[in-house]
Amino acid sequence: MARWADIEQALGVDVYFCDPHSPWQRPTNEHTNGLLRRWLPKSTDLNVGHVRLAVIEDNLNTMPRKLHHWDSPHSDYAALTCNHR
Question: Is 29 in the same domain as 49?
């Protein structure tokens, strides 16, 4: 990732990179990949079109998650953006 130090400085946050071939260092990414496999099994042609991708995106964003206390990412995002207006 280019210019990550600029991002750290601008946002005042630390940026971390995982080691290659270390899926245990990025469990959320691995879990999301598993969820995607519900709609796009391995060896699926990923040229599925914008409409199908939008449906998959909506399914993922409205799915309740333990991480969000069984709310969906969509509802958490909506609550956060509503509180900051």
Answer: no
Instruction: State whether 51 and 85 are in the same domain.
Output: yes
pLDDT (tens digit per residue) in 24-63: 999 989 999 999 999 999 999 989 899 999 999 999 999 9
Backbone angles phi, psi at 32, to 5 degrees: -65, -40
Q: Which residue has the tokens 């040229």?
A: 47
Tell whether 85 and 49 lie within a shared domain.
yes
Residues spanned by the domain of 61:
45-85
Rounded Cα distance, 61 and 78, in Å: 11
Q: Is the pTM of this model over 0.70?
A: no
